[in-house]
Predict the 3D structure of the following.
Amino acid sequence: MQKNEILKQYFGYATFREGQEELIDSTLAGRDTIGIMPTGAGKSLCFQIPALLLTGLTLVISPLISLMKDQVQALGANGVPAAYINSSLNNNQIIKVIENAKDGKYKMIYVAPERLDMAEFIGFCQKADIALLTVDEAHCISQWGQNFRPSYLKIREFIDKLPKKPTISAFTATATDEVKEDIIRILKLTDPFVVSTGFDRENLYFEVKKPANKDEALLYYLKKNPGKSGIVYCATRKAVEEVCTHLTRAHYETTRYHAGLSEDERNKNQDDFLYDRKAIMVATNAFGMGIDKSNVSFVIHYNMPKSIESYYQEAGRAGRDGAPADCILLYGGQDVITNQFLIDNSNDNSDLDPMNLELVRIKDRERLKQMTYYCHSYDCLREYILNYFGDNTANYCDNCYNCNTNFEELDITEYAQKILSCIKRMDERYGIKVIIDTLRGSKGERILRMGLDSIKTYGIMSEVSEKRIREVINYLVLNDYLMLTNSEFPTVKLTLKSRDVLFNDEKLMMKVAGDQPIIKMKKERGLKKHYAKSEGAVNDGLFNQLKELRLRLAQDKKVPAFVIFSDSALLDMCDRMPSTGAEFLEVSGVGKMKLEQYGKAFLEVIGSFSHRRIK
Ligand code: ADP
Ligand code: MG
């Protein structure tokens, strides 16, 4: 069979995506291969298709248990015999897998890097014919990357124990040159063929909001987007607990994930989300690596993450199936402080010597700065991210808040003078909220108790909205006219530069969103492109009926819904309205096995739907 036939028969797709074909060809030719492609680009097929075509076995090193289980289930559903070996199996189960493998029952085995030094496994591999060894999430090998995993360093040792070196392929979405070089050096790849596609994910919409109240902003978004599934990322466990409680009280089907929960509870909550029993996952960054739930419609960051790398990786968990999805970051000045604290006190790298530890911290601080600039940029947000990763792009994407907003220049000199002099009169002892309340002449109990109503600047900005004052203060902090102390409840202090505004009449201009947005509503660019035809059917409810059927089948089989079909496969069914098996096979994501297993059930639903419509 040829690779194109495999693509259709097993995976149900008609054409390759960018980069896939070259990566597959190079692997099949026996050359070491590196694929650097963004999340959702389709890296898995680049080793799964060679695995099916090569004589011999393919080993896939993968960092996360949940990822292995999902991929093996998904492969099974497509008729590809595969298994996994990791700490979720007991010794007897592992021996059983190895025995099956000896009998030639699998084309692929996924294995956790920690298991590579198991004597039984090594013994088996030394006798088996290992054609290909794939390292997925290969950035885990590099200390410079996110999510460094020491056990990845052992992979090469394992390879050296094999009688014959297999072809090696490695895949990642994070690709700074440092990480790439580390992958090549540590895996000792010989003259590897490297494909690095652009990092753009067209279907993702980017926005940064700076709300006075993040909880309200979150609820507002959820109300506007009913029924959608998504992730809310928080910086701390405490924030996860609070936000989850808050959303549950507001009657959203919400679950949570962080390192403070027991493993059982984490697994259960993760499954609730994967299996669509709970629509919203509130989590720390502990959640998500290796989650390839395809129908995540939004990723909201309740706090700013520590770097653009983290942000793009986490935000990139939205819209993996190519459907339009939102990536929204709720920024607050406190986020910078929290991250600084985490960088200064992290012992993630406790095995590093002090000098290297300090080097890592310096890099982390620089990354945090770049992340903070993103939140204050008025230019195309997509351009900002892509440039960060070294991609050159147009400076207008038409699918981010900044591109869709008309900014005006506002002279904020007078506001700034009022704010700075108020802070001076308050002896630089208070946080942002108290300063704003004082400027606006609040009659709040706290302000009165502290006697702030008697200072001269009390109420001098009573006509200005809280939001605007907050924006100006953010601007002043970002441009070093003010600073925040590095403490749990940061207070605002003047800086040397403050004098220029207070005494030397320095003029300050700030960009603000104008009253007349260029485009009132966010443009559904991706939506138009992908689903224009299916819109009618979607509105008529066929899509929901198909989703219900999928959920029922998934529950029967005890697999996540996306193992049956992705959202984009269901939408393609709405587009095509197939009525025969041959037509059903045309649907993107329907291969031979899926046709046999699910064709009848889905065709029935589609049939009775079009029948009703004709009547
Ligand atoms: P990555 O590992 O790069 O993040 P995956 O391999 O998990 O991405 O693929 C993401 C999604 O894209 C999956 O649902 C997969 O089935 C789908 N996909 C992969 N290749 C193709 C293709 N050629 N045509 C259509 N969909 C594809
Ligand atoms: Mg992947």
Observations:
- Residues 3-196 form a domain with the Rossmann fold fold (CATH 3.40.50.300).
